[in-house]
UniProtKB/TrEMBL annotation:
<dbReference type="Pfam" id="PF05970">
    <property type="entry name" value="PIF1"/>
</dbReference>
<dbReference type="InterPro" id="IPR010285">
    <property type="entry name" value="DNA_helicase_pif1-like_DEAD"/>
</dbReference>
<keyword id="KW-0227">DNA damage</keyword>
<dbReference type="GO" id="GO:0016887">
    <property type="term" value="F:ATP hydrolysis activity"/>
</dbReference>
<dbReference type="Pfam" id="PF21530">
    <property type="entry name" value="Pif1_2B_dom"/>
</dbReference>
<protein>
    <recommendedName>
        <fullName>ATP-dependent DNA helicase</fullName>
        <ecNumber>5.6.2.3</ecNumber>
    </recommendedName>
</protein>
<keyword id="KW-0233">DNA recombination</keyword>
<dbReference type="GO" id="GO:0005524">
    <property type="term" value="F:ATP binding"/>
</dbReference>
<keyword id="KW-0234">DNA repair</keyword>
<keyword id="KW-0067">ATP-binding</keyword>
<feature type="domain" description="DNA helicase Pif1-like 2B">
    <location>
        <begin position="394"/>
        <end position="438"/>
    </location>
</feature>
<dbReference type="InterPro" id="IPR049163">
    <property type="entry name" value="Pif1-like_2B_dom"/>
</dbReference>
<keyword id="KW-0547">Nucleotide-binding</keyword>
<keyword id="KW-0378">Hydrolase</keyword>
<feature type="domain" description="DNA helicase Pif1-like DEAD-box helicase">
    <location>
        <begin position="180"/>
        <end position="275"/>
    </location>
</feature>
<keyword id="KW-0347">Helicase</keyword>
<dbReference type="GO" id="GO:0000723">
    <property type="term" value="P:telomere maintenance"/>
</dbReference>
Length: 550
């Protein structure tokens, strides 16, 4: 029925020439898109549903020699909202798409979060696709592919091998080389980079670089995008205006957003104040403190003398088990209440640099949930020929690898979990997708969306048969990259260990009011400031590639 309605809508546009076609679209778009909403799920991204509907309608119109843009003006309406910085970039890219003779066809958008990188890509995709062109979306991770319609990972799109060895880095550099080679072959054009196709790259280099096991700083820099020989062919576009500030509803909100934006840039660019050891000093208002006991009073000659420990020096000085408790209280208040809305879990997450910290916090939060606990045990074995008698099953069960679910998966109804496999990117079920458990069965987990590689540490490869999910009340900072969260807790029992990690953790939100950090008590200075290590590779932020190829 919705398809027939779209055919009727197309006929009306072509032959009846309605005076306000956009108004007609707005009035009936829910009826026109009912089948796509059912296909993608009732909680699907409205942008994806709308795009699929408009694409179907556009195909109907093209049979009659028309396009949707001629009537609805969707692309034109979106372009109007672009600021001059984005508009200029938009015009250059579209010119490269529509005019084969244009020389510059490779663009790189560089800007911190909030400057419109995603907005620009959405508009470019809409413009090209609504006019009948083909536009593909490639991202470095599964969760990033869900931000744009039709997204695929680079390894999936370009068939990049997923079997790293001591001679391969599998970083962004390699992805760029594979992409260049693929487009040259497809277009039978070896003279121009990427076969002469118009391509837009987008990134914030203040965030986490390619993750390489046991890599030095130099090896990490060599694996990055800027170290590629293709880098010199790109036109670098600096996005500088924060559109969140520009579109703030009132001056007070705009001022707060501008202040927070500068606060984040100081972190990302290594400009934040440091102590005498070179560690950054955290603002006290975002640190979590334990409750301070009442002052102890001792009498003496009729006079009372208060012996009060100053709160700055009692920062998290309880045992290690209590430290996350204060952070959980701050980020997940009322988590044990029944009938909490899904949005409650969507808006919250605690981040930590390492997996052991994450696992411990997830267990602590799950204990606060009411209801029956279900335990799922994995089936662990060695992959390929090998003498399994050398390794007891209990030993295999005890191992926890990055990207692999735990042997013992303990769940309750209401538990927040993260998908760790790319199962169906079109429907948002990919590595990094957060879900909420709604029912627990013997061999099945019902969950609704809330919006392992080889390891040389062991002389074998292990196969684990387990549900591809892990608890998600807490997650590693690396896993959080690309997530949108409204209440963030950062647990730094150990300091961050990679460029951009602290910046990524802080950047999940839009206000410092919803950030809480728990830090080891030894990080309190004599001047009562709170500090921790922060890693910024200045060369990684450099605009030239020569530093990466030395």
């Amino acid at each position: 029925m919705p398809y027939q309605l779209r055919q009727l809508f197309g006929t009306i546009l072509v032959y009846s020439l309605p005076g306000i076609p956009l108004g007609l679209w707005e009035h009936f778009k829910s009826d026109l898109s009912e089948d796509f909403l059912r296909e993608l799920g009732m909680d699907a991204d409205v942008r994806k549903v709308g795009f699929k509907t408009m694409k179907s309608l556009n195909n109907i119109l093209r049979v009659n020699g028309k396009t949707l843009e001629s009537y609805v003006g969707a692309t034109a309406a979106m372009v109007i909202r672009l600021n001059p910085n984005l508009q200029d970039n938009f015009d250059h890219v579209i010119s490269a798409v529509e005019s084969p003779e244009v020389g510059q066809k490779l663009f790189f958008d560089d800007g911190p979060g909030g400057t419109g990188k995603l907005v620009l890509l959405v508009q470019l995709l809409a413009k090209v696709r609504l006019e009948g062109g083909v536009a593909i979306v490639v991202a470095s991770s599964g969760i990033a592919t869900t931000l744009l319609t039709g997204g695929r990972t680079a390894h999936s799109m370009f068939r990049i091998p997923l079997q790293p060895n001591e001679h391969s880095t599998c970083g962004a550099n390699d992805a760029l080389v594979y992409g260049d080679r693929t487009f040259r072959d497809i277009m039978d054009n070896d003279r121009e980079p990427f076969g002469g196709k118009a391509i837009v790259f987008s990134r914030d280099y203040r965030q986490i670089p390619p993750v390489l096991k046991d890599a030095t700083r130099a090896e990490t820099l060599k694996a990055c995008f800027k170290a590629s020989p293709q880098w010199r062919h790109l036109k670098k576009v600096l996005l500088f205006e924060n559109i969140r500030v520009r579109t703030a509803p009132d001056p007070d909100d705009a001022a707060e957003l501008a202040e927070f934006s500068e606060f984040l840039l100081q972190f990302g660019e290594g400009r934040f104040p440091v102590n005498h050891e070179g560690d950054i000093c955290h603002p006290r208002d975002i640190c979590v403190f334990p409750e301070i006991p009442d002052p102890q009073v001792s009498g003496g000659d009729g006079a009372a003398q208060a012996e009060v420990e100053f709160p700055n020096f009692t920062l998290l000085q309880d045992n290690a088990g209590r430290r996350p408790t204060f952070l959980i209280d701050a980020v997940y208040p009322r988590v044990g209440d029944e009938n909490l809305p899904d949005q409650y879990l969507v808006d919250r997450a605690i981040m930590a640099p390492t997996n052991p910290c994450v696992m411990r916090i997830n267990e602590m939060v799950a204990e606060r949930l009411s209801g029956e606990t279900k335990e799922y045990l994995s089936n662990d074995s060695l992959e390929g020929p090998g003498d399994e008698s050398l390794f007891e099953p209990e030993f295999l069960n005890s191992l926890n690898f990055s990207g692999m679910p735990p042997h013992k998966l303990i769940l309750k109804v209401g538990t927040s979990v993260t998908m760790i496999r790319n199962l169906n990117s079109d429907n948002g079920l990919c590595n990094g997708t957060r879900l909420r458990v709604v029912a627990i069965r013997e061999k099945c987990i019902d969950a609704t969306t809330t919006r392992g590689d080889k390891d040389k540490e062991f002389p074998f490869t292990m196969r684990r048969k387990q549900f591809p999910v892990v608890p998600a009340f807490a997650m590693t900072i690396n896993k959080a990259q690309g997530q949108s969260i409204h209440h963030v807790g950062i647990y730094l029992e150990s300091p961050v260990f990679a460029h951009g990690q602290l910046y990524v953790a802080l950047f999940r939100v839009t206000s410092r009011k919803v950030i809480k950090i728990a830090i080891d008590p030894e990080t309190v200075d004599e001047d009562v400031s709170v500090h921790t290590k922060h890693i910024v590779y200045e060369k990684f932020l450099s605009d030239t590639a020569q530093y990466y190829c030395d």
